[in-house]
Amino acid sequence: MSTEEKTATKTAAQEAADRGKVSYAKRDYENAIREFTEAIRLDNSVTVYFGRRGFVYSKIEDYDNAIKDYTDAIKLDPNNSDYLMYRGDSYYQKKDYYTAINDYTAAIKLDPLNTTPSRKRVDAYQKLRTKEGGQWMKLSLQERAALWAVMPDWERREREREREEMMERVKVNVVLEGKEDKDTAIKDSMSIRDYSTWK
Questions:
Q1: Which has the higher per-residue pLDDT, 139 or 77?
Q2: Distance (Å, whole) CA 194 – CA 173
Q3: 51: exposed, middle or buried (C-beta count within 10 Å: 0-12, 13-18, 19+)?
Q4: Domain spanning 3-152, CATH architecture
Q5: For residues 164-185, average pLDDT
Q6: Model confidence pLDDT, tens digit, residues 16-70
Q7: For the chain, what are the domain ranges?
Q8: Residues with Cβ < 8 Å from 8, sequence gap 6 or more?
Q9: Alpha helix locations (H) across the chain?
């Protein structure tokens, strides 16, 4: 391909991307995806084309394709914290809170002054701990240790307080009679044992 042809191709790709931006502004997401796809077909070396299409996919809640596009954008520009955060958002929406936390953590390392991924990481961490998340018991010891390493200080203090309360309940329950109390003691003991895997 000659220099003139390469220039023409890049120009056509930019024009397609510009049309995609207009379609997005009009909330014509289907056409926006079509235009960004054309831009990528013509020139797949431009990070922002993948990023913008990924953003449109996330708008229509097609998080799998959004993740693919953000991943391609990250490969082209690994130092761009925004794409890591956006990919984390897509994982969050899929309720894959652990992977979202990993992306938010990577974004924070690249741009420590940006507080947005920090806030999102705290929220994802809270979701992971709830029954809604349903992922806590599925995590390996290494994954739990990694989460402990990035846990906010206030969360660590809260976990320590919970552990101390559990231990006090166990001390009381084990000396009481009755099946219900013994079962409670067993459950609390298991919780304490589970908690210890964070460290």
A1: 77
A2: 19
A3: buried
A4: Alpha Horseshoe (1.25)
A5: 56
A6: 999 999 999 999 999 999 999 999 999 999 999 999 999 999 999 999 999 999 9
A7: 3-152, 153-199
A8: none
A9: 3-25, 29-42, 47-59, 63-76, 81-93, 97-110, 116-129, 141-150, 153-173, 179-196
pTM of the model: 0.69
Largest CA distance in the chain: 88
Question: Where residue 9 falls among pLDDT bands split at 50, 70, 90?
Answer: very high
Q: How far is CA 45 from CA 36, 77, 138, 171, in A?
A: 13, 10, 38, 63
Tell me which amino acid residue 72 is. D
Instruction: In whole angstroms, give the CA distance from residue 161 to residue 156.
Output: 9
